[in-house]
């Protein structure tokens, strides 16, 4: 369960400690994400998955520890340095985090305008249309406002915006939360096909066992303020940690495993 030998680290977290007052969320947490993998991050509610994501993207300053993303140190960066690194990743927040007063196309254009303020409007529109198509939305979604979209379409619009600057790395925070099983499975397949086509590295926080089975290369488990294990599902199942056993071997875990095995055989 060590890091794969051929791993080219894209995210390296070492000795991370995060605390809010007396509450220690992470203590001496280590994690490596390798280039080209889809890493799923799981853990019970409140184990610090979102705080870990916020630390990695520089929104949460840790008490101690080092974080490198795409070869850059993320702790104590100047605003200019932070801006340079931010353009190399895309983030899909749990609720899509779209600007409600902007259309889908305008939302996708926000990061492009930020980094390329002199881009011409026709080119901007063309790039936005292309990204909207990559997010799996029909062209007529571009002029719509978020309030006119279904939950699944909001996620796809958020994904289109996350892809706006051709990222090397994608952060997804519970991408299938709130979607019905059919929409969730379609979204999983969209992530997988984008990851392959665009050669992306994906850091994916999820509670969705189907997502873990169907698209994740490795899974990191957060518990006891640390990443207690990273590996494939069979590797994790070989451990006798109670949370891991309950999660993957509980009724829902077994159902997800069975349906995935069925899918592989069929
Ligand atoms: N800004 C903050 N101030 C104080 N406490 C915080 C803050 N952000 C997070 N926490 C606390 O840190 C802990 C971890 O929160 P986090 O949101 O990372 O959990 P999570 O694993 O993502 O949970 P869930 O699966 O429910 O989304 C929680 O106890 C939360 O209350």
Plain-language structure description:
InterPro entries: AAA+_ATPase, ABC_transporter-like_ATP-bd, ABC_transporter-like_CS, P-loop_NTPase. Pfam families: ABC_tran (PF00005). Keywords: ATP-binding, Nucleotide-binding, Transport. The protein has 266 residues and is α/β, with parallel strands linked by helices. It has a single domain, classed as P-loop containing nucleotide triphosphate hydrolases (Rossmann fold), CATH 3.40.50.300. Helix content is 40%, strand content 24%. The strands form two sheets. The chain has a six-stranded mixed sheet, sandwiched between helices. Helix 3 crosses helix 4, helix 3 runs parallel beside helix 5 and helix 6 packs parallel to helix 7. It is globular, with a radius of gyration of 19 Å. The mean pLDDT is 90. Adenosine-5'-triphosphate binds next to helix 1.
């Amino acid at each position: 369960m060590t890091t794969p030998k051929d791993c080219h680290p894209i995210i390296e977290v070492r000795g991370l400690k995060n605390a809010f007052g007396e509450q220690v969320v992470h203590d001496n947490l280590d994690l490596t994400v390798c280039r080209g993998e889809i890493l799923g991050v799981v853990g019970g509610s409140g184990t610090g998955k979102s705080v870990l994501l916020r630390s990695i993207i520089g929104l949460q300053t840790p008490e101690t520890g080092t974080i490198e993303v795409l070869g850059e140190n993320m702790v104590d960066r100047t605003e200019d340095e932070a801006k340079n690194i931010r353009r190399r990743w895309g983030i899909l927040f749990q609720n899509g985090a779209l600007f409600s007063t902007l259309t889908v196309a305008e939302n996708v254009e926000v990061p492009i305008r930020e980094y390329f303020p002199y881009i011409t409007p026709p080119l901007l529109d063309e790039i936005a249309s292309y990204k909207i198509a990559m997010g799996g939305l029909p062209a007529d979604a571009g002029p719509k406002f978020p309030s006119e979209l279904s939950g699944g379409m909001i996620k796809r619009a958020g994904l289109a915006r996350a892809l706006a600057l051709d990222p090397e790395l994608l952060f997804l925070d519970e991408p299938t939360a709130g979607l019905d099983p059919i929409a969730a499975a379609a979204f999983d397949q969209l992530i997988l096909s984008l990851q392959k086509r665009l050669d992306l590295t994906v850091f994916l926080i999820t509670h969705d066992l189907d997502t873990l089975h169907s698209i994740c290369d490795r899974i990191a488990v957060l518990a006891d303020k640390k990443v207690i294990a990273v590996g494939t599902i069979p590797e994790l199942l070989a451990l006798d940690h109670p949370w891991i056993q309950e999660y993957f071997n509980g009724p829902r875990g077994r159902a997800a495993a069975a349906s995935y095995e069925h899918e592989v055989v069929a």
